[in-house]
Amino acid sequence: MAIDFDLPIDRSGTWSMRWDRYPGDVIPLWVADTDFRAPPAVREALAARVAHGVFGYTHAPDELRAAIVERMRRLYDWRIEPEWISFLPGVVPGLHLAARHLVPPDGHVLVPTPIYQHFKRAVQLAPRTHADVPLVLAAGRWAIDEERLAAAVQPNTRLLYLCNPQNPGGTLFTRPELERLAEFALRHDLLVCSDEIHCDLLLDPGKRHVPIASLGAETGRRCVTLMSPNKAYNFPGTGCAYAIIEDEALRRAFSADSHATVHDPGLFGYAAALAAYRDDEAWLAAQLDYLRANRDLVERTVGELPGLTMAHVEATYLAWIDASALGLHDPQALFLEHGVALSPGAQFGAPGFVRLNFGTQRARLAEALARMRRALGAR
């Protein structure tokens, strides 16, 4: 499919969180959206709804439920039922619902870290006690330290958070790794809340995403799986996500805030999600080819820069860069001074790191990497 991902898109004046935060000559490679236009089918579906002109209260379309059911079967051989799907405006509310409604006030949560900051915010704001379980760098990828995980369990532990593919580390957990996690959850009678929003952004050919809930009936009944097309098809500002929850009692508890403090997706979120899942696999494949080359450029360049290292990125468009050898309290500030805005590692629980979003045009990415090189040379 001929898509020009190199085409520069001017996002100024569009209320872009990513581009508006840092004024002036700064390349923003921080928050996780891309600088690519959404797929043609998505834009056409949204244009058709705008042309219709009536934007009234909307219910979840049966066609979208059917598309999700078919997608889970086709991609993962995972047989789900339409009623297992609970729609959300985004994945983040799902993290908060899991902490508040699936863990009792005196309960305890396991959080593998570093991790996307809203996992920690969910347990802190609930509030629920939790244990950080540091990931370990093994064979060039971030993996769960199973010994530390076992040591962190307490009698009141009720929930294990999982982020797969992992944000910010870029790991795509393997079936054997997930099977051991599932066995661990069964042994300790834990629920699992798995954020799988990056499941379509697979960069290593031949590697497949495995939803942990798809591993078997016993595992599936204790899982909340959070998914969304928002990241892969780049319409997070439109907003449509969903939780897949097999167990009816668990689904009822998770949905306690439905139409109270958590609202449904809007009309445009449903329309965009349905169009993405129905029509844009060729666009997604082309985007993955482009992101793979961007990933390779980042890994190659970081490997040449003094004081920086990074693990291989198997999935997502996010590079987790270890800058601890620089000995700086805030390495993000160094790169910002030289015109590159990255996410600070402290946000994810690792102050010596930075996270770089390579979901942008390659010329812009190359310039950002050149600025990072100059920043290191100027120290």
Strand order of the largest sheet: 2-9-8-7-6-3-4-5
Strands, count: 14
CATH architecture title of the largest domain: 3-Layer(aba) Sandwich
Count, helices: 13
Structural class assignment: alpha/beta
CATH domain topology of the largest domain: Aspartate Aminotransferase, domain 2
Ends distance: 44 Å
What's the mean pLDDT score? 97
- CATH first level of the largest domain: Alpha Beta
**What oligomeric state do these chains adopt?**
single chain
Q: Which stretches are poorly predicted, pLDDT < 50 over at least 5 residues?
A: none
Tell me the overall shape.
globular
Which homologous superfamily in CATH is the superfamily of the largest domain? Type I PLP-dependent aspartate aminotransferase-like (Major domain)
- Give the DSSP E fraction (strand runs of 2 or more residues): 15-25%
Task: Report the C-alpha radius of gyration, rounded.
Answer: 20 Å
Sheet of most strands:
8 strands, mixed
Measured as a percent range, the helix fraction is: 25-40%
Write the layout of secondary structure elements.
Elements: H1 17-20, E1 27-28, H2 40-52, H3 62-76, E2 85-88, H4 91-101, E3 108-113, H5 117-125, E4 129-138, E5 141-144, H6 146-152, E6 157-163, H7 175-187, E7 191-195, H8 217-220, E8 223-227, E9 241-244, H9 248-254, H10 267-279, H11 281-302, E10 309-310, E11 318-322, H12 331-337, E12 340-341, E13 343-344, E14 353-357, H13 362-377
Parallel strand pairs: 1-12, 3-4, 3-6, 6-7, 7-8
Antiparallel strand pairs: 2-9, 4-5, 8-9, 10-11, 11-14, 13-14
